[in-house]
UniProtKB/TrEMBL annotation:
Residues annotated as domain PRELI/MSF1: 1-154
UniProt GO BP: innate immune response; negative regulation of RIG-I signaling pathway
Annotated protein name in UniProt: SEC14-like protein 1
SUPFAM superfamilies xrefs: CRAL/TRIO domain (SSF52087), CRAL/TRIO N-terminal domain (SSF46938), Supernatant protein factor (SPF), C-terminal domain (SSF101576)
Cellular-component GO terms for this entry: cytosol; Golgi apparatus
Species, as recorded: Donacobius atricapilla
CRAL-TRIO domain residues: 298-474
Cell location: Cytoplasm; Golgi apparatus
Length: 694
């Protein structure tokens, strides 16, 4: 079915032609490698094509079919402008190791723009647009050719068998490879009308979303392999919570393993789990935690003096993290780096822990969703109880507890000194009860006796500083030189820089006091884009247009509501004397957004002038028949304390000159958008259109 898209494919209009450059077939017919030069008509502005001096772009694609291992690997790279732009793409079709009726599809790509005549940002957006469009069409194209084969009477292709002379292994054998679980596809496949034998699975980075499993039941093999023992009730909670996320969060949603952590943290109370999971997703999005391992490099001070690191695994296969807290100069680290840098480093450790859990799940063939932490307190003294250091520790615990529940499988505290009870008294109230049950504390050398370290860690990997034979590469810590200390002012500025690296802003919305954002548009047919999360309460989202500028923004007096708002501002632009229809007009229908929803969308502007984005408190409607509120409405209104809502938002304006008539599937160059206007247009027939996605 895949080969039928060559030499050209009517379903891909930009794919104009292709020529075979090289071709190889093995003697036994198992291997078939074909390399093609593909001609593409990229949907780019005519001005950009003229500047670049090309009408078409050429890519080289190499397809490697291995019938013995039942795999198809596809590699592609750009030939045109290869000295300015580097594009690499890798795709693979493989047989799922646990169900031979499933085909797994994995795809990844990289884009590196070195220079492009000053149009680097435009080229990046065009590339994202084309790539997103290709991903969306990939499954549709395969289904088209599968159906074409069926119409020709081809419904089964016999498995390849080696010639008799070289038959040295079973024709049905194939290596089992650790592959991302394909069980998540059947739901979407069912919706598309596919049978189980035609299922394709798309998986990418560990943090990217996968499609859902069947509505009524998860596959038993999948549960055993990746999730662990689940009762029917627990399985139902997982499916319901994931379906809700898919409906309300049009972007990345966690994998089943991570959703389960939040359910387990709240004893499978789906409402409580949903609340903390939504808060965590918003937090991750705001601070771009998904990218912390790729984009943030720890300062050298941390690499030299933070006495912690990963060290093999315990007897249960859990990743093992070793922390020599007693050898660490917490005061020196806080004075040299500040609280925020330490917090970010701990977050990177947790993200690495999640990644290692996935790796160990594949290696050991059973679900591993947590890690073991070994804390050596040898050397702990009153210096470690320095107040700012304890304050930083408590905040780190609070953030980790809220966003990484049920990730700590076991905590082994060794060589606890006499001062430890003081530290424990300070921190234990901030630790969840379920987490505290996983703590094992050993004083002196008790860890060497029965019930000690050997019960949990193999003798071969016990670190040398605990009397073992395994060299541990964890830094030894030590005192941070005072020459590296920073002033309070420097630390404050650095902290602000570190933790405000976000494109999102927070705002509070009150009953009678909406939050409004002003956007001035000079050129008609520009595109206003937005991305916001409703963190608390229910709101109504509106877009207005005015020919005249409103008065300078005024901040709402929060005293009138008897509420302080440290987490967000409240700005009102529309004057009380303005009349709708006379002074300003509504350009989009009001959108009611519920608490926990993530909303993305865009609006193609029809006129120049001033556009106002408004988030307004949503009041529950009364029952029409009796003019009395319904019981459900009353209960829901009680959940919004003091009539206050909170939103986290980002807006961007994209000029019309580069994207006139080609807005389909455009994605913003910022990370905040999961989808941007899948159906907008700026043609003369339809000047204004928008699309809201949750």
């Amino acid at each position: 079915a895949y080969e039928r898209r060559f030499p050209t494919c009517p379903l891909i209009p930009m794919f104009v032609a292709s020529d075979t450059v090289n071709e190889y077939k093995s003697e036994d017919g198992a291997i078939h490698v074909i390399e093609r030069r593909c001609k593409l008509d990229i949907d780019a502005p005519r001005l950009l094509k003229k500047i670049a001096g090309v009408d078409y772009v050429y890519f080289v694609q190499k397809n490697s079919l291995n019938r013995r291992e039942r795999t198809l690997h596809i590699e592609a790279y750009n030939e045109t402008f290869s000295n300015r732009v580097i594009i690499n793409e890798h795709c693979s079709y493989t047989v799922h190791p646990d169900n031979e009726d499933w085909t797994c599809f994995e795809q990844s790509a990289s884009l590196d723009i070195k220079s492009f005549f000053g149009f680097e940002s435009t080229v990046e957006k065009i590339a994202m647009k084309q790539y997103t469009s290709n991903i969306k069409k990939g499954k549709e194209i395969i289904e088209y050719y599968l159906k074409q084969l069926e119409e020709e009477g081809i419904t089964f292709i016999p498995r390849w068998t080696p010639p008799v002379a070289c038959k040295s292994e079973s024709s049905t054998s194939h290596p089992r490879r650790p592959v991302s679980p394909a069980i998540n596809i059947p739901e979407s496949a069912t919706k598309e009308g596919l049978s189980n034998k035609e299922i394709l699975n798309t998986s990418s980075s560990p943090s990217e979303p996968t499609a859902g499993t069947p509505d009524d039941k998860l596959d038993a093999d999948y549960i055993k392999r990746y999730l662990g023992d689940l009762t029917p009730m627990q399985e139902s909670c997982l499916i319901r919570l994931r379906q809700w996320l898919q409906e309300t969060h049009k972007g990345k949603i966690p994998k089943d393993e991570h959703i389960l952590r939040f359910l387990r943290a709240r004893d499978f109370n789906i409402d409580k789990a949903r609340e903390i999971l939504c808060q965590s997703l918003t937090w991750r999005k705001q601070h771009q935690v998904d990218y912390i391992l790729d984009t943030w490099n720890p300062p050298q001070v941390l690499q030299d003096y933070y006495a912690g690191g990963w060290h093999h695994h315990d007897k249960d296969g859990r990743p093992l993290y070793v922390l020599r807290l007693g050898q660490m100069d917490t005061k020196g680290l806080v004075r040299a780096l500040g609280e925020e840098a330490l917090l970010r480093y701990v977050l990177s450790i947790n993200e690495e822990g999640l990644r290692r859990c996935e790796e160990n799940t594949k290696v050991f063939g059973r679900p591993i969703s947590s890690w073991t932490c070994l804390v050596d307190l040898e050397g702990l003294n009153m210096r470690h109880l320095w107040r700012p250091g304890v304050k930083a520790l408590l905040r780190i615990i609070e953030v980790v507890e809220a966003n990484y529940p049920e990730t700590l499988g076991r905590l082994l505290i060794l060589r606890a000194p006499r001062v430890f009870p003081v530290l424990w008294t300070l921190v234990s109230p901030f630790i969840d009860d379920n987490t505290r049950k996983k703590f094992l504390i050993y004083a002196g050398n008790d860890y060497q006796g029965p019930g000690g370290l050997l019960d949990y860690i193999d003798k071969e990997i016990i670190p040398d500083f605990l009397g073992g034979e395994c060299m541990c590469e964890v830094p030894e810590g030590g005192l941070v030189p005072k020459s590296l200390y920073r002033t309070a002012e420097e630390l404050e500025n650095e902290d602000i820089k570190l933790w405000t690296e976000t494109i999102y802003q927070s705002a509070s919305v009150f009953k009678g006091a909406p939050h409004e954002v002003l956007i001035q548009i000079v050129d008609a047919s520009s595109v206003i884009t937005w991305d916001f999360d409703v963190c608390k309460g229910d709101i109504v989202f509106n877009i207005f247009h005015s020919k005249r500028a409103p008065q300078p923004p005024k901040k709402d007096s929060l005293g009138a509501h008897s509420i302080t708002s440290p987490g967000g501002n409240n700005v009102q632009l529309i004057d009380k004397v303005w009349q709708l229809g006379r002074d300003y007009s509504m350009v989009e229908s009001p959108l009611i957004c519920k608490e926990g929803e993530s909303v993305q969308g865009s609006h193609v502007t029809r006129w120049p002038g001033f556009y106002i984005l408004q988030w307004k408190f949503h009041s529950m409607p009364a029952c029409a028949a009796t003019n009395l509120p319904r019981v459900d409405d009353v209960l829901a209104s009680l959940q919004v304390s003091s009539h206050k809502c909170k939103v986290m938002y980002y807006t961007e304006v994209i000029g019309s000159e580069d994207f006139r008539g080609s807005m389909t599937s455009l994605e913003s160059s910022h990370s905040g958008f999961s989808q941007l206007s899948a159906a907008t247009t700026s043609s003369s027939q339809s000047h204004s259109s928008s699309m809201i996605s949750r």
